[in-house]
Amino acid sequence: MVRDTLAAARAELTKIVTLRAVWFGTGAIVALHVLVLAQNVAADTAAVHAITPDGMIERFPGDVRPAREALVEYLAAASFQMDLFLPLVAAVAAGQEFRAGQLGTSLLAVPRCGRLVCAKTLATGGFLLALAVAVAAISTAFMYVTVKDWDPGLPVSAAALAAQGRFVAHAVLSGLTTYAITMITRSTLAGILVTVGLAALTMTQVLASIAPALDALVPLSAGRNLILSPGDGITLSAGPGHAMAVLITWATVTTTVAALALTRRDAR
Question: Which stretches are transmembrane (predicted)?
């Protein structure tokens, strides 16, 4: 059973990596990430060069903080900003099943819907993991360029790796949630719209201002709570443990519903 599931997952991963739309989206995300970070290199390097003897940095006017803490958080935030876009790749990958009429063929190859959804989840999770690690590696490389004359080991310190690990966890879990939502709605556009709508709840701070407990249940808010630290205008609605539980619940519930939605073998 496990062997069959892994074989199906390899087949699903092959389908994902051969989709032009997926590679176009992946390339756009990587290019955007590099462009944004490249624009900040000069200012960030200047801020590092101006670190005081007692280890304080002023990245923004009037914002003086311990340098190591601030730079590690900036590293995590640099990766986290791409979490607005990573789930869209998952939506495109899921939507191609219905647009190209591949789902019926997949169900013929793997008649058990539970096993098929499990294989798709493993394949999508693996692709998202690779993409998130690539984003984190790019952030780390730019951070090294910024701090190499002050503390070249900071980008790969325990604190930095832990922060990047939290980013990767959120990227994979939120991406799987979007993938499952797209499978449920059978539409790339619907999957994207739901993801954007949930993100808007976090970015507009609508729920955070009136019901922080509800805000903590939104995937992007959970990512913020998991990855970032309070301060500098950042208000968290829950702790990292609560945030991880929320992300796992979203991914688990939506994937289960997607499996139930594929109970008919004539799915199109």
Answer: 21-38, 74-94, 122-147, 167-185, 192-214, 243-262
- Tell me the pLDDT tens digit for each residue of 131-185: 999 999 999 999 999 999 999 999 999 999 999 999 999 999 999 999 999 988 8
How far, in Å, CA of 106 to CA of 119, rounded?
A: 11
Which amino acid would we find at residue 76?
A: A
pTM for this predicted structure: 0.88
* Alpha-carbon separation of residue 105 from 4, 21, 264 (angstroms): 17, 20, 13
Distance CA 37, CA 48 (A): 15
Which of 160, 202, 179 is closest to 122 using CA atoms?
Answer: 179
The angle at the Cα of 102, spanning 101 to 104, to the nearest 5 degrees, equals 90
| Residue type for position 231 | G
Q: What is the residue type of 145?
A: V
Q: Which of 197, 190, 196 is nearest to 92 (CA)?
A: 190
The vertex-82 CA angle with 210 and 208, nearest 5°, equals: 5
Helix (H, G, I), strand (E, B) or coil at 63: strand
Contact 63, 157 (CB under 8 A): no
Residue 149 tokens, joined:
């004359």
d(CA 257, CA 260): 5
